[in-house]
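Lab manual, section 2.4: Encoding a predicted structure.

Procedure: take the sequence of the chain (234 residues), apply the prediction step described in section 2.3, and record the output as structure tokens. A sample record is shown.
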Amino acid sequence: MNDGYHQLHLPIEFIREPTLAEYLPGPNAEAVAAISAMAHGLGEPFVFLFGGSGTGKTHLLQASCLEARAHARQAHFVPLATAGLEPSLLENLERLDLVAIDDIQHVAGERHWETALFSLFNRMRERNGCLLLAANLAPDALPVALADLASRLLWGPRYRLQPLSDSACEKLLTESARRRGIRLGADLVRYVMSRYRRDPGSLMELLSRVDSLSLREQRQPTIPLVRRAMQEQS
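Recorded output:
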């Protein structure tokens, strides 16, 4: 990264590094294609994702930034659900190629945040930057008070992310484990799917804990090890 990026002093960064390849598209292939194009500096300059918990909104936003950086583009992820953030966080972000802002619903109706977001929209447009937003509701269903911001949220394509089927979640769990060098046999996959939350976010968090335990104990996962990983979350 160049010095201009470091001078922004942005305090928020993601810990894990989810990639677009790790997101199993399922019924969301069109949205994933649009986000991939945006990360490469192609396609639409503004995209809005919405959907319920566990549909992978945060994963896609974080992955878009990682993909953009892999192609020498400056990008940053801003999770608005994080406590203690101030609207000043959005200052100077127009200097980046891609800005991905999660959980817009957390600041909808707050005048200072809405004004800051509206200003960022305009600055990003002037500099031909890309803006990727996500919320739990469609943009026209959010309780946005600032009419100009409400209009901006409707500028580009909007994608409602759909949850994966159980069979797709099994495939995601198996493929993600293989990429980590973990062997999850059919018995372990059935054990997880019958006893744990069946959504991609929860499954990937569990897999991370299984991976950590496996590395610590220098052995492939077993049902007792997976059970312990489940209990760590309880």
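Check your result against the sample. Residues 200-217 form the longest helix (18 residues).
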